[in-house]
Amino acid sequence: MELTTTTDEDLLIISPQGRLDAVTAPLFDRQVEERLPAQATRVLVNCSGLDYISSAGLRSVLALAKKLQNRGGRVVLSDLHGPVREVFEMAGLYSMLKIYDTEAAARADG
């Protein structure tokens, strides 16, 4: 798994590539922690490059969402497709998280 981050004003965009599973989730957690500014309250996880996510990956995403919620912020997701989308649907996370079809739609929600 590779992770790229970009910042657009006060929005941190996290783009994981490859697999987010039990092996790579700790790396995801560590890299997000290193790149997440202490004052950040808006994070977008763009899943367009994510091929697979396991329950360990879901836990990482939910832990990030909880951390931001405790700061008065939120995490939104975009570009879920194929098996990644199915896992989020089966886990019932569409009702818990804001998920958008595209990054542009997620950004527009502000």
TrEMBL record:
The protein in question is named: Anti-sigma factor antagonist
Pfam name, any one:
STAS
Look up the domain of life of the source.
Answer: Bacteria
Q: What InterPro entries does the entry give?
A: Anti-sigma_ant, STAS_dom, STAS_dom_sf
Any idea where the STAS domain is? 1-110
UniProt record similarity statement: Belongs to the anti-sigma-factor antagonist family.
**GO molecular function terms attached to this record:** anti-sigma factor antagonist activity
Q: Which organism is it from?
A: Desulfofustis glycolicus DSM 9705
